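User: Structure please.
Assistant: Input sequence and predicted structure:
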Amino acid sequence: MNNLDYGVVGNCRTAALISKEGSIDWLCFPLFDSPSVFSKLLDKDKGGSFSFIVPDNYCISQKYFRGTNILCTTFTSDEGKFEVLDFMPRYKTHKDEYYIPSEIYRYIRLIEGKPRLRINYNPVMNYARDTVIHKKFTDFIRTFSQANGNDNIYLYSSLNFDSILDQEEIILEKDEYLLLSYSQKLSNIDIDRAYLEYQRTKVYWLNWNNRSRKFLRYRDVVCRSLLILKLMSFEPSGAIIAALTTSIPETIGEVRNWDYRFCWIRDASMSINTLIELGHQSTAKKFMSFVKNILKSKSDSLQIMYGIDGSRTLTEEILPHLAGYENSQPVRIGNAAYYQKQNDTFGYLMDVIHSYYFRFPGTLGELEEMWEIVRSIVKTVYTAWQTPDQSIWEFRNIEKHFVFSKVMCWVALDRAIQIAKILNQTDYVVAWEKEATLIKDDVLRNGWNSKIQSFTQTYDNPHMDSSLLLMEQYGFIDATDERFVKTVKRVKEELYHNGLMYRYKIDDDFGLPSSSFTICTFWLIRALFMIEEKDEAQRIFNQMLAYSNHLGLFSEDLDFDSKQMLGNFPQAYSHLALINTALLFAEEKKSINFIKP
């Protein structure tokens, strides 16, 4: 069973998926959302990859270098042993400036003996639409698209270029390196430079990880998920992407295949709150800059999602020439959900803005600029909360009065009220409190179904929805409130199946969902914990951890029966929820706060 057994490496500009056998099967250059250079992930025959071919008697294992985003794949046989250290350079050069080139190093370290290998270097540009030409120069191999000669990449190596291109057998007798770069290098590239870049990148990640809060339980789980969340931040703009991939299906053979290489305000805001909570405020500051840039004018409306550069139009396109992950078509690039109406988005963003005001002392100008955004969002919420929307689940052709969307509209006003109090804006506090009360009363009156004794998905249906489990987490209702307790139990009764949660169990635009949305099970665990069913919460949490891949990574979905990971990968949503859930059970390891790393 293919279980998305991939590691990921990146540097907050782009990232690569590397199989447990050491093959780069997904890489977009120069940015997260650029066309792919390797896309075997989405078409085994056409997609192209960058791998090591070894005899069948070699054993291959894989792990991360502890506390870093450096991936180590080890090849072992009786004749010898070597490891490949994959990383994308990232380290500080000046104050608040980082070196993050669009490139990946493959440092081949000889451990013992004389192992044999071949190099499979097979890039296929532009989502495998373009054939390529290789041209050898003194210092590098230039690979370019036959259709567009300006679309090129550069391979540097200490190995013989003909041996690479012809897949000749290589007997490893010393350390070697491969460097694939989007740009031609101006500095001299040799084994010493490769080793230096490795050490600099390792130190960066170790220092970054050291600034995280530490815990006595689930420390490694939290650490890996935090490192994944950091990888998914886009340094140039501050955006946080939802996942590194496109079109990995929610269910094999079905059509729920989407491009997640964009910044959803919901996902990003939740990720940022998690990073803030664990001690990483610089990423949060960058995201707030992103928010300011997408809302430069008072006339700019808030979309649910943006391109990583803040672009608003994310035109969706189907690539029919690609077979798809495990032959699941279509393969999509772009995402038509960008124009949807999802009223819950306002609440997540205002929640993170609230954290911004509490945690980040800014200049008067910065605070005033953010205050304008707060007032603009509130003005929008005043109208939006009374109208139907497409919900957190992004229904494409369904608009209803979703209970959770209205809860998050209340959250938007509640956090805005707290911000206004910080700024001594009394008049706004009074007006907004009245509107917040109207929203809450409306939800309690129309969202509660007295017949089944539970909150429901919408005002006009009796169905359960996993998002209802978040009502307490955002402060809308107390965990001891009988209505919340009954709702949690009802949701579990109807949506919990084979150890995993459905989002909902009604037909949507594509029929009945047949896989579990990973984050929903983490939501259930938290809700059970909060209503004092802690043993059950602990049991389900430990069970969930066993469903990750070999490196502790999660995708968006899980198959109910096989527990195969499905959906785009790795998923920020899943990892932020894993962290937040682990903190319920993890005892913090206290340190001396005034000592800096």
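The chain has 14 helices and 30 strands.
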